[in-house]
Amino acid sequence: MSRAERRMYALMQASLVTLMVLCAWLVWLSLPGSDGAVLATAIILVLPLAIPLPWLWRRSRYAAVCATFLLTPYLAFAVMEITVNPAMRLPGGLVLLMILLTLIALVGWLRTSRPRAA
Question: 82: closest CA among 71, 93, 70, 73?
Answer without folding.
Answer: 93
